[in-house]
Amino acid sequence: MREDVRPLVNKALDLVSPEKAGRRVIALENPGRKGTSACVGWLYTGLQVMKPGESASAHSHASSALRFIIEGKGAYTVVDGHKMDLAAGDFVITPNGTWHDHGVEADGATTVWQDGLDMLLVNQLDANFYAVHPDRVQKSNYPINDTVQVFGGPGLLPAGEAWSKPYSPLFKYEWGRTYETLVNAAKATDGSPYDAIMMQYVNPATGGPVMKTLGANIQLLRAGERTKAHRHTGSVVYTCAKGSGYSIIAGKRYDWSKSDIFVVPSWAMHEHANASEREDAVLFSFSDVPSMVALGLYREEALADGGGHQKLPH
Amino acid sequence: MREDVRPLVNKALDLVSPEKAGRRVIALENPGRKGTSACVGWLYTGLQVMKPGESASAHSHASSALRFIIEGKGAYTVVDGHKMDLAAGDFVITPNGTWHDHGVEADGATTVWQDGLDMLLVNQLDANFYAVHPDRVQKSNYPINDTVQVFGGPGLLPAGEAWSKPYSPLFKYEWGRTYETLVNAAKATDGSPYDAIMMQYVNPATGGPVMKTLGANIQLLRAGERTKAHRHTGSVVYTCAKGSGYSIIAGKRYDWSKSDIFVVPSWAMHEHANASEREDAVLFSFSDVPSMVALGLYREEALADGGGHQKLPH
Amino acid sequence: MREDVRPLVNKALDLVSPEKAGRRVIALENPGRKGTSACVGWLYTGLQVMKPGESASAHSHASSALRFIIEGKGAYTVVDGHKMDLAAGDFVITPNGTWHDHGVEADGATTVWQDGLDMLLVNQLDANFYAVHPDRVQKSNYPINDTVQVFGGPGLLPAGEAWSKPYSPLFKYEWGRTYETLVNAAKATDGSPYDAIMMQYVNPATGGPVMKTLGANIQLLRAGERTKAHRHTGSVVYTCAKGSGYSIIAGKRYDWSKSDIFVVPSWAMHEHANASEREDAVLFSFSDVPSMVALGLYREEALADGGGHQKLPH
Amino acid sequence: MREDVRPLVNKALDLVSPEKAGRRVIALENPGRKGTSACVGWLYTGLQVMKPGESASAHSHASSALRFIIEGKGAYTVVDGHKMDLAAGDFVITPNGTWHDHGVEADGATTVWQDGLDMLLVNQLDANFYAVHPDRVQKSNYPINDTVQVFGGPGLLPAGEAWSKPYSPLFKYEWGRTYETLVNAAKATDGSPYDAIMMQYVNPATGGPVMKTLGANIQLLRAGERTKAHRHTGSVVYTCAKGSGYSIIAGKRYDWSKSDIFVVPSWAMHEHANASEREDAVLFSFSDVPSMVALGLYREEALADGGGHQKLPH
Questions:
Q1: Which residue from A200, C85, C174, C205 lies 20 to 30 Å from C102 (Cα-Cα)?
Q2: What is the value of pTM for the model shown?
Q3: Do residues C21 and C86 both lie within one domain?
């Protein structure tokens, strides 16, 4: 096992490359910031394709990562010895300092997932570390999906010694119960004027974000629902998980449907709409908002004019 | 609405009486501390029977209360305008300062629930307040069970403004998902040597106890399972929710089966056993352990001798 | 060294007695609650006289204690091996679980101090523990008054590992700088309408109270100053440290001058006045307000009528 | 008053320029990162000279700033209406979002101070905001130095409503008591093997750093003292406030004496020595370590080899 600080130059590439072994990665680049690997702000996102039987070798780093499963079958992630199987719509984290490896079982199907990382910021802060696990693939020391079984009860946590690590012990958030929660909440509450029915994925031991630097949300727009515009510090990457619609971002309309990815830069005014009058739409998103809050830099503001809606050019 | 401090003498009785309207209450008294209304330490517990169509009038107090439903149909509690229906095994809280009223719908069945309160301690601290709601029955301003729909998702919380009141926004913990969580966790983890598979009911916004003064746990003993002995500060009231077994408390054996109630005093050595080799057993419990932790007085200790088991007299 | 839980009956007496060795103690008893050792609420306070060369043997307990020095010379307290010399007006804590012993040096003068303890509450909660130190007098492992030198800088704390114990690392608060702070603050701020220039003795590592169960304040009433009335939960014991004046408590006037002790029960309306037009007056006080806050039971209220002043009977 | 988000390009320059009005500023540039205004990591530091009667106009920004006074007489800073006079060795903060202006009184002397800002990071995060105060110079609404009088007592805080803003209410840390604290602590404790007698300037209301993004320390090296080497994430800017000595940073020796400024980059091994056998030496430093801690990226490591000292090339 080796572990050291990477030099500043090309650190991002150094970090990315071990992740790419045996995988096809498309990093989503911001046309306005070519060469930085940043898709918005300092956020990295990429689409990865993995075929049955392929896997990435076990490693850890100080940057935090998350994954949202787009499609596939038989994928898995192992985090600190906890193995989780992954299906479309599942959200999984590999926090700062945890050992992790990924793959697709031999009897699975080609899987596509979206990665999100804070590595560009962590590199900029000269605070990244990288280590290779002594084994190519971690041994799984626990029953599969044990973290979901133990930490996934509603309003329940294991009694006794409290979880004190700075990230969620749940690791995986399954699509089934997540979508069910959105649908139930949509019946019970009006939600937010700016975000409709939006749930934050949280660390159940604290109620706070899943990791210190990156957070993630899932939101449902009811059939025909249109939100009002607001803006806030922090950069956001959205992925459409269900349905279709459009967002107006900084005065420009962007249409989206399932598996489309779009971004909202820090302080850009934005509002969302479900284009269907019959089906609900669901947006997954991740952001560096937890970093903004931790540094005392979070700020938000509603659009005062135009009934809360941005004007589009003719 | 009136609101004032009660005189110290008979404050407990003052407080209890408004709760008794239209109900049959049996307070469980500690034979060693007659006349105090305390069943163990400063904890009050009582069994209440309510018939279809009966209800208790809306009020609030600075003491915190909780309820565990023993049996019945059509019961409900309203907390600060949020109405919840209650079935056997459900756990519900009515925290310090919240308006609450209870009843059984006219088409329900006679319901028995167990109350737990910290009022004896709060009275002793000269810190109780009592107020009567202007309406006999609170208007329900939200869809029924809305708090469960909004705050009951696994690892999910509404995004936006965080819940900041000093108690759980979930209010109700339903038996179905609670028992399912215990069964799942029993497959995924060994649990605690002293408490088997024990989950704490938590405030999902903090991961802490449901209220500042009172906490509650639910624990599953697998078929044939027997725990080791330990002791801790804080008094505990147990109710058997499923199955049967026995506990050895301060060197004496107490057998229990469904709906039995027993107590473990502060610092008494205790261990539990499931008497069945086929069925799991479930114990609900509530305690003042959160008060002990808040005051820096929590302490625990395992039994070192006898292989971790207490000796019983011949 | 022995350490165990005392039986509930007479636990207070058990606890008090080891403290009395070689000392003369007068416990201040509430005439309305004889036999309880409580002077107000669950607070214990006593005056202790110690002659030169006398000392109390080293011990620890789960209850928390504090001392305010009334008069004398050459007194000292040792807390977990940190020895502090004590002069009139100094405030010192001996927190839950710390080893402590006290005495007066052979070349000192007869010393009177006031003790404050939470032991009655801790006993009521069945959470007290008592242990005798293997040595009659603790060895002092640090330079005298080291905690004041290290933790007593204004807005400064030792860098590196943060202090994490649940009480103040400062242990001693010296009269000189405390009074100087009051005098300076009186020039710079109006203070509180209810408490004039009141400072809380804090744990500098958190800004919170010095201990989890007990807190202490020091307040200055400027020449001729009279506060408005308010009330709050929590019981308070006051000692006049300088000057003279009077307090109106629950509608009755109590005059006080240097070294007088008086109490304000929970939720009793109270206001203070400096009787002198030339000299400032200073009141030391300790209370269980931190316990009220920790348990979510703190509440306060200003007197709305009579211009904020209570009416006295003719 | 105007307030908006600056475009990303040249945002740093935009921000700096209003600060420069009427002042002479020398930004300390990192020769290895020309054109960035960063002297180490993302930290900005500059030396400013202001003549008697000069002042900078009142403004606020989301980036946090601090000042260490090198020399002069009659300087002042006003923060949110609190005016403070400043002498050599004083440390003052102008936190995120506060109105602030600076100047030198007409009867003062030319003043040199060192600025430290996090603006480069805040700009990089697209989270900066800038506003001009309606008045060129803020009215001072409080007695001069009132925050020091009110919040500067050792182990004392105003009772009542707690300070809840995310920065220190003390604003100014005076050299006199700061140096006195170092001298006292040097007699009472060995201090840290890596940092000798090092105190963190803290927010007295929390015990945490003075601001969310930037922290500051002051450390004393006793006559002849030499520390061992360690390294940590976070960038540090040091200023010699007294005496002389040298530091070995990443294997290279840098000598310093009063008013010299030097830096230690993130994760660079470093150790310090006082070159005098008779006089103590004092180093002021500020850093982004609080940002590292807030983001979960703080890590430190002692040098294991060479008796804890780095080898210098011959």
A1: C205
A2: 0.93
A3: yes
Residue D15's pLDDT is what? 31
Closest residue of chain A to D297, computed from CA coordinates: A127
| B141 falls within a domain | yes
Whether residue B11 sits in one domain with residue B142: yes
**Which pLDDT band, with edges at 50, 70 and 90, does A314 fall under?**
confident
Same domain, C83 and C38: yes
- Taken in order B130, B131, B136, B137, the sign of the CA dihedral is negative
Which range of residues forms the domain containing residue A94?
6-151
Question: Do C84 and C191 have their domain in common?
Answer: no
C119's enclosing H/E stretch is: helix C119-124
What CATH number did the domain enclosing C213 receive? 2.60.120.10
* Amino acid, res. B194: Y
For residue C159, tell me if it sits in a domain.
no
B20 to chain A, any CB pair closer than 8 A? The answer is no
d(Cα A153, Cα A159) in Å, to the nearest integer? Answer: 13
Q: What is the ipTM of this complex?
A: 0.92
Instruction: Give contacts of B122 with chain C, Cβ < 8 Å.
Output: 297
Task: Sort out which chain A residues have CB atoms less than 8 A from D267's CB and list them.
Answer: 5, 126-127
Find the DSSP H helices in chain D. 11-20, 119-124, 146-151, 175-188, 289-294
Between residues 209 and 248 of chain B, which touch chain A (CB distance below 8 Å)? 217-219
Task: Among C149, C170, C191, select the one facing D188 at the smallest CB separation.
Answer: C149
In the predicted model, what is the mean pLDDT of residues D61-85? 97
D7: exposed, middle or buried (Cβ count in 10 Å: 0-12, 13-18, 19+): exposed
For residue D167, being part of any structural domain is answered with no
Q: Is A58 helix (H, G, I), strand (E, B) or coil?
A: strand
Q: A191 and A303 share a domain?
A: yes
In one-letter notation, the amino acid at residue A295 is: L
Kindly state whether residue B137 falls inside one of the protein's structural domains.
yes
Contact (Cβ atoms closer than 8 angstroms) between residue C187 and residue D143: yes
- Check whether residue B43 and residue B147 sit in a common domain: yes
Are the CB atoms for D129 and D5 separated by under 8 Å? yes
C184 touches chain D (CB under 8 A): yes
Stretch among A67-71, C193-197, D38-42 having the lowest mean pLDDT: D38-42
Asked if the C-beta of C152 comes within 8 angstroms of chain D's C-beta atoms, the answer is yes
Closest-CA distance, C27 to chain D, in angstroms, reads 28
Lowest mean pLDDT segment, chosen from A282-286, B126-130, C201-205, D277-281: B126-130
- Return the HEC string of B210-237: CCCCCEEEEEEECCCCECCCEEECCCEE
More confident residue, A67 or A6: A67
Q: Are A211 and D296 within 8 A, CB to CB?
A: yes
| Domain end marker among B151, B166, B185 | B151
Residue-wise pLDDT for B81-121, tens only, equals 999 999 999 999 999 999 999 999 999 999 999 999 999 99
Statement to judge: residues C277 and C198 lie in one domain: yes
Q: Which of A197, A171, A209 is nearest to A86 (CA)?
A: A171
Identify which of A170, A188, A218 has the shortest CB distance to residue B150.
Answer: A188
Please, which residues bridge with residue D102 across strands? D56, D77
**Predicted pLDDT at A24:** 67
User: How many domains, chain C?
Assistant: 2
Considering only the beta carbons, identify the residue of D145, D177, D219 that sits closest to C154: D177
